[in-house]
Amino acid sequence: MKQINKFTLRELEKVQHLLPNNWRETTHFTVGCVDNIPKSSINVGDKFTIKIENYIINQPENFSLSENWNHGTVPPEEILDIEILQLMGKMTKVKAVGKCTRIAWEGWLPNKSFKIQ
């Protein structure tokens, strides 16, 4: 039987919660886009592409997320490549880069404000 190379094995281990229980014995994988990774399975250090809700970038007058949590900054765009830095209750701290603009940003997002692509 052909063995999985070390790089592929390391990458598969990062997403093993999405794979069947016998994935190590499987010789054929079909990799596709995962629509809904449960946020309960997110860990510090995980990397994803996310789409954030518009109200995070274009904040209403009575919404103080950027002032209270992010030193007055907002994400550069709606689609971001992120790395999870910290988890705290209903908030997630991310290091992000805009998918199109490639502008870097770091800050807190409410868990309900983003979806993993």
Explain the overall architecture.
The protein has 117 residues and is of the alpha+beta class. It has two domains: 32 residues, no CATH class; 84 residues. The chain is built from three helices and five strands; from the N terminus they run H-E-H-H-E-E-E-E. Strands 4-3-2-1-5 form a five-stranded antiparallel beta sheet. The mean pLDDT is 83.
Q: Which whole number gives the mean pLDDT?
A: 83
Tally of separate domains: 2
What's the gyration radius in Å? 17 Å
Please state the oligomeric state of the protein chains shown. single chain
Computed structural class: alpha+beta
Proportion of residues in β-strands: 25-35%
**Major pleated sheet:** 5 strands, antiparallel
Helix content: 10-25%
- SS element count, helices: 3
Helix-strand sequence: HEHHEEEE
Note the gap between the termini: 34 Å
Q: Compute the number of strand runs.
A: 5
Coarse morphology? elongated
Strand arrangement in the largest pleated sheet: 4-3-2-1-5
Task: Give the low-pLDDT segments.
Answer: none
